[in-house]
């Protein structure tokens, strides 16, 4: 097929080499219960949605094994930037005509692990309501207190009435925790309690734990489907478009930035300093900076910065204060950690999951800014107002967009599990919900690419230096 140049007189683009070819698409295989269990243990049933009075399944209602979502949809027709080959594809998420669980036999368990994120309660609610209303499942249990809860706490029986208003509350009604990952105790508990569907909501660490649980269940040949639902306010999980709760967090972060701006503007030589979440990725800081337009400098873990000397932060802020009389600085919690002096014990300190405990970059920066000003301008007024909304932005309920997202995620997860898939994650890829192998998601990172347009846009909005080290630039 060759494209015509049309009436513009432009040369026609030859599409022969770039024609979509199914042979160059690689569908990422999802684990399925039938891959390790005999047919005798896996009777198939017609999807109960077929007889649900609220649905009218048509031919295209059900997902077939050939319904796919492409990972990379941008394509350069000139061939200058060839697409990755083969092109990765994932199974589209949705209901299947045949299911591998009889609703009356299902015992579903839901657990939340790691830090909070807006929307966790919505996901729990929609898992419960979806299992109950869509598929007629009646035995649904909430595992309390994260992974450790499987083997140490009595589960909570859940039904739609109980979870009815969960989506209006921040946090997780099931409680969460870090650490406590004891694989054998967890899988023994899953087996002994008779759970056959396990829904695991959590971040990167949780997904790595979920992979181990899935693999152990598969090696014990248990008839248990495991699915992960990625939760991370930092938006640091790869492959999926973005994680739930992230948009809500950015909105909340903007409120903090606005307050910092008002404080800075209303002072003589005022600096508004806002610390935002982001352990190893600066997505919240970057997106809040771009949408607020009030930020003069955005510091994220993916870039280095330094304070003193030519091209450093102090020099830049000095100039900004002279030009505007105020400045707003946004710093992600993971930025500049290597600049902050640490004691020996601080160097070793880890949380219960083994993550390094960070020092407060905002508090440190505030102190450094004050010392710098006293040193350089001892007789001039100066104010730093430090706002730390880190827990506020993740402890709120999800906004409307995130609530819808959480609902689709939960329902996609249920459809996949009912269809017998296991060891998978559901999530949006290029706007379409897909099923992705759990181990792929557990390994995939989503960092800010400081070479792409978005970071260049931040730099052009803020005019901040790129902190490239020159011979005269000094560290510290
Ligand atoms: N590599 C791993 N293998 C098994 N379990 C893990 C692993 N990493 C973390 N976990 C367990 O997963 C749970 C959550 O981990 P962690 O505290 O790192 O949070 P997270 O899931 O990464 O969420 P977030 O970082 O977004 O708050 C904990 O119970 C932890 O013990
Ligand atoms: O204080 P906590 O609950 O351990 O959580 C802090 C961490 O959790 C996160 O919000 C990720 O969920 C990180 O941004 C942050 O470093
Ligand atoms: Mg994590």
Instruction: Give me the Rg, rounded.
Output: 25 Å
- The helix fraction, in percent, is 25-40%
Low-confidence stretches: 1-18, 472-476
Largest sheet: 10 strands, mixed
| End-to-end distance | 60 Å
Strand content: 15-25%
**What's the number of helices?**
14
Shape: elongated
Secondary structure topology:
Layout: E1 25-27, E2 45-46, E3 68-70, E4 87-92, E5 98-99, E6 107-112, H1 120-135, E7 139-143, H2 149-152, E8 156-157, H3 160-163, H4 183-193, E9 197-202, H5 204-219, E10 225-230, H6 246-265, E11 270-276, H7 283-292, E12 297-299, H8 313-324, E13 326-332, H9 344-348, H10 361-376, E14 383-387, H11 390-394, H12 400-418, E15 424-429, E16 432-437, H13 438-443, H14 453-462
Parallel strand pairs: 1-4, 6-7, 6-9, 9-10, 10-15, 11-13, 11-14, 12-13
Antiparallel strand pairs: 2-5, 3-4, 4-16, 7-8, 15-16
The structure holds adenosine-5'-triphosphate, 6-O-phosphono-beta-D-fructofuranose and magnesium ion.
Overall description:
- The strands form 3 sheets. Strands 1, 3, 4, 6, 7, 8, 9, 10, 15 and 16 form a 10-stranded mixed β-sheet that branches. Strands 12-13-11-14 form a 4-stranded parallel β-sheet, with helices on both faces. Strands 2-5 form a two-stranded antiparallel sheet.
- Helix 1 crosses helix 12 and helix 4 packs across helix 5 (204-219).
- The chain has helices at residues 120-135, 149-152, 160-163, 183-193, 204-219, 246-265, 283-292, 313-324, 344-348, 361-376, 390-394, 400-418, 438-443, 453-462, and strands at 25-27, 45-46, 68-70, 87-92, 98-99, 107-112, 139-143, 156-157, 197-202, 225-230, 270-276, 297-299, 326-332, 383-387, 424-429, 432-437.
- The chain is of the alpha/beta class and 476 residues long.
- It binds adenosine-5'-triphosphate (ATP), 6-O-phosphono-beta-D-fructofuranose and magnesium ion (MG).
- Magnesium ion (MG) is lined by residues 114, 203-205.
